[in-house]
Inverse folding.
């Protein structure tokens, strides 16, 4: 979801090099809502490394990069290639060249004046942004790719021109909390263009603010705070559902629920509810095909009086409509062109943020379903044994690499397992989804502990590796040249419990897993198994098991490495037998209290939350 630089190269000037190459910073960014912010950070760092460039030049470069990357993400949706290069200029000393490429060729961008104020070409404003700040710019088309480039010079600051439109129709200042994020825009004198550095700064910072949100309703709420009262007296945001957003006018899908009025905001808060009721009666009905430009919207006179104007902007990402943004102003017959253009550019960023929030919500739902399927729905109750479990995925609701199980195996036997798969995400989920059923099947077929591990090891070396690689390709993409199948390791502590008169016989084996600890009623602590090889690593390995008896008051603690390797600086929780010491302090506690105490000590060990999945199982003889 985020924009992760998959490649970055920075070449700096070498003081002693005979023919230094021009400093270059390049990166490949994932085409998501975080790409503009990541691009700004990368370029800002590169400009800082390149020496004492004029502050105005550095600011302009960062703003141009932000706009070009945003346009590439909105209009292409592919990975974005970013290049920033410092060049010598005989007249000005330095020039900075920016290139932003995508992999979605399209028609040549247009930069012609619109026929009417509300018919601005889709690409025109973005390129006028570049033209307002750059000495030269252009577009290069190649087969399967398009690159927009710009060359910027260190020009002296020019005074902003005034614009009578703002005097006739004043724009209210931002809320103090947002004022620093969005400086007041003023029309630029460069070419008489409203797209100036103030507007660019507003759009760049608004992108960062919106991209960090993972909930579409919060995106709608932040949008209203950015617009009211600065650019409009009121605004409303309708959101389409996932099914209805595929096309057609609202209310025209068979059985479709139609749009949802997610946010209504007015500069006068006492009028919000009345405005909401009026808007709910008459939702927007946009024309097809969808376009992001402003369309006239019926003025809600019943709530706001007879005089005013309103405009609707369709929120679109990659040709898919996600909703509609409506702005209104009382006492005027039209919005200034400067405002309509700025809101249109902001609307594209809002749509990008809504799309990212929906993608996150879908992934979170899938992860939650996966997690429920990977863990047992209920933990078996064992005669004469109390059990307690703690399982905390690093990503709440997401698939964890840690798993556990406790189930009846028949013939008076119960089995338990606690394991950790190498890696996270879909690959780990596939291995867990295979390992748990295999464990249960082999145990119920009567195989002993050591035999279960032997067979599970062979199965992991075959089917699980193939399945995990297939999952990785499905979620991440095909392997690169020279990338062969990746072995999926599994550390596992597996055991069998057989109650008898006076206690419980426990047969167990550890395959590359943190060793279990046995706490006696007297406070003594001892390891209860021997270390053996991870599963899924070596084919010709034979596993063995150990047997112990749990008597009244004995407690067996089984953990994953999220407990033993919990970090605080350079120290780990289990350094100096830290886990054994913590367990010794639990003497006299029942299983639930032991599990909770160990969990609390692990959390308190570091200043920050744990960075790994955490799981622990306590088995206590009654």
């Amino acid at each position: 979801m985020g924009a992760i630089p998959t490649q970055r190269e920075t070449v700096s000037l070498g003081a002693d090099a005979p023919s230094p190459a021009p400093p270059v910073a390049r990166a490949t960014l994932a085409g998501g809502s975080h790409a503009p912010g990541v691009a700004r950070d990368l370029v800002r760092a590169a400009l800082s490394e390149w020496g004492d460039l004029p502050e105005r030049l550095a600011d302009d470069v960062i703003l141009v990069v932000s706009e070009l990357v945003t346009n590439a993400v909105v209009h292409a949706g592919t990975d974005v290639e970013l290049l920033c290069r410092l060049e010598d200029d005989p007249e000005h000393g330095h020039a900075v060249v920016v290139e932003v490429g995508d992999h979605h060729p399209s028609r040549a961008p247009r930069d012609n004046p619109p026929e009417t104020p509300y018919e601005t070409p889709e690409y025109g404003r973005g390129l006028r942004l570049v033209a307002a700040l750059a000495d030269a710019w252009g577009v290069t088309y190649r087969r399967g790719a398009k690159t927009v480039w710009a060359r910027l010079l260190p020009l002296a600051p020019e005074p902003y021109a005034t614009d009578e439109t703002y005097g006739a129709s004043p724009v209210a200042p931002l809320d103090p909390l947002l004022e620093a994020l969005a400086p007041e825009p003023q029309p630029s004198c460069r070419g008489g263009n409203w797209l100036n550095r103030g507007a660019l700064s507003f759009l760049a910072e608004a992108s960062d603010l919106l991209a960090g949100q993972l909930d579409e309703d919060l995106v709608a709420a932040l949008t209203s705070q950015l617009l009211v009262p600065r650019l409009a007296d009121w605004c409303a945001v309708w959101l389409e559902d996932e099914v209805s957003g595929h096309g057609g006018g609202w209310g025209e899908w068979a059985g479709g629920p139609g749009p949802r009025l997610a946010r209504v905001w007015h500069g006068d808060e006492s009028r919000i509810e009345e405005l909401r009721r009026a808007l709910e009666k008459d939702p927007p009905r946009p024309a097809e095909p969808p376009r992001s430009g402003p369309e006239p919207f019926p003025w809600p006179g019943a709530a706001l009086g007879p005089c005013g104007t309103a405009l609707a902007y369709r929120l679109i990402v990659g040709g898919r409509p996600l909703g509609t943004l409506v702005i209104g102003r009382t006492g005027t017959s039209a919005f200034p062109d400067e405002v309509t253009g700025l809101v249109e550019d902001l609307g594209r960023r809002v749509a990008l943020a809504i799309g990212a929030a929906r993608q996150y919500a879908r992934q979170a739902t899938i992860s939650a379903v996966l997690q429920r399927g990977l863990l047992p729905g209920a933990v078996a109750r064992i005669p004469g044994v109390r059990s307690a479990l703690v399982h905390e995925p690093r990503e709440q609701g997401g698939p964890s690499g840690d798993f556990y199980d406790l189930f009846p195996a028949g013939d008076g036997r119960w089995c338990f397992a606690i394991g950790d798969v190498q890696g996270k995400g879909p690959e780990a989920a596939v291995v867990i989804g295979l390992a748990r059923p295999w464990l249960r099947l082999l145990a119920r077929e009567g195989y002993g502990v050591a035999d279960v591990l032997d067979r599970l090891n062979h199965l992991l070396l075959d089917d699980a590796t193939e399945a995990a690689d297939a999952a990785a390709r499905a979620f991440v993409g095909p392997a690169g040249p020279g990338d062969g199948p990746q072995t999926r390791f599994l550390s596992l502590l597996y055991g069998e419990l057989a109650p008898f008169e006076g206690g419980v016989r426990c047969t167990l084996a550890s395959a590359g897993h943190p060793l279990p600890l046995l706490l006696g009623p007297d406070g003594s602590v001892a390891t209860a198994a021997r270390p053996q090889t991870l599963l899924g690593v070596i084919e010709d390995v034979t596993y063995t098991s150990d047997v112990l008896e749990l008597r009244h008051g004995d407690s067996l603690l089984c953990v994953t490495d999220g407990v033993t390797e919990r970090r605080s600086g350079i120290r780990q929780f289990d350094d100096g037998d830290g886990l054994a010491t913590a367990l010794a302090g639990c003497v006299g506690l029942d299983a639930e209290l032991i599990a909770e105490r160990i969990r609390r000590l692990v959390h308190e060990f570091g200043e920050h939350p744990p960075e790994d999945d955490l799981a622990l199982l306590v088995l206590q003889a009654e």
Q: What stands out?
A: The two ends are 49 Å apart (CA to CA). The first strand starts at residue 5 and ends at 11. DSSP finds 15 helices and 23 strands in the chain.
